[in-house]
Amino acid sequence: MSETGSDYILTISCPDTVGIVYAVSGFLAERSCNIIDSAQFGDRISGLFFLRTHFSAGAGAPSQAGLQADFAAQVAERFAMTWKLHDANRRQRVLIMVSKFGHCLNDLLYRYRTGYLPIEIPAIVSNHRDFYQLAAWHNIPFHHIPVGADNKAQQEERLLEIVDQEKVDLVVLARYMQVLSGALCEKMAGRVINIHHSFLPSFKGAKPYHQAHTRGVKLIGATAHYVTSNLDEGPIIEQEAERVDHTMTPDDLVAIGRDIENVVLARAVRFHVEHRVLLNGNKTVVFR
Ligand SMILES: Nc1nc2c(c(=O)[nH]1)N[C@@H](CN(C=O)c1ccc(C(=O)N[C@@H](CCC(=O)O)C(=O)O)cc1)CN2
Question: Which parts of the chain span the membrane according to its record (predicted)?
């Protein structure tokens, strides 16, 4: 039996058909589980259905393991669901990676410290030493892993050792400026979020603000996306944009961009750790 009031989040994707919400809500009601909030979306192009349900297990409800076993047998199988049942109160363990620009790292650390981001941060990893003291101030272990053309595979092995040892759920690239290998992206699929400093698909690669200035755009932005082996091509989680004009220098755009990057990355991390993001091919469904 579950402790009264245990909160869970159920996420589902499956071929769309009649009766999915009815089956899920009936399953929960029969087991003394009360839905707190629920959202769903049927994608008519992919033919897939997506559901996120936050519920509380009342007195007499089965344990998490019991709910999972029942749901697998009673509902998930007949609808061919891809699904997960998450403990809503468990804080995800987030490893942050950074290179030379620390604004996103600093912002995430502040939001974590003030409780805005319900996460644990067991480690900070960088290919430079610049943020060693910032990590120390927050009492978070700092791992310096320099990467060059001749040692990328070995250094990525070290990263994966830390991910394993620290039971990391999510890796956040907070302006980490090295391209991760295809092998690493495969191993960590759906568990690595990057902040790209442009409004993708515009201005991929390094130095997007200079590209934007050269092009003379009137809006600039930032994009948080899951990392895949295709640089800057991963499923987009969140974006934001700001108006700019002809009077602004590339440095002005960089300064405006920093604030946008902070907000977009923090939102994307929060959506992910609250199980609000479901993959839909190379796109996402985000139940904000
Ligand atoms: N597999 C992936 N790895 C990374 C991605 C990604 O989308 N897929 N995003 C980058 C972040 N990024 C843009 O957002 C980015 C970072 C770095 C480069 C780049 O060309 N780097 C050069 C080295 C630059 C340096 O040493 O300063 C390189 O790796 O040759 C492009 C885009 C993070 N990783």
Answer: none
In whole angstroms, what is the distance from residue 132 CA to residue 140 CA? 9
- pLDDT tens digits, one per residue of 170-182: 999 999 999 999 9
Q: What one-character DSSP code corresponds to residue 107? A: H
SS3 287: coil
Which of 7, 169, 232, 251 is the catalytic position?
232
Residue 210: both structure tokens together: 């200079």
Tell how far the Cα of 277 is from the centroid of ligand 1, in angstroms: 23
ipTM higher than the 0.90 cut: yes
**What separation in Å is there between the alpha carbon of 178 and the centre of ligand 1?**
4
Residue 232 annotated as catalytic: yes
pTM of the predicted model as reported, rounded to 2 decimal places: 0.96
User: Which residue range is the domain that position 31 belongs to?
Assistant: 7-87
What is the Cα–Cα distance from 79 to 235, expressed in whole angstroms? Answer: 25
Per the structure, the count of domains in the chain is 2
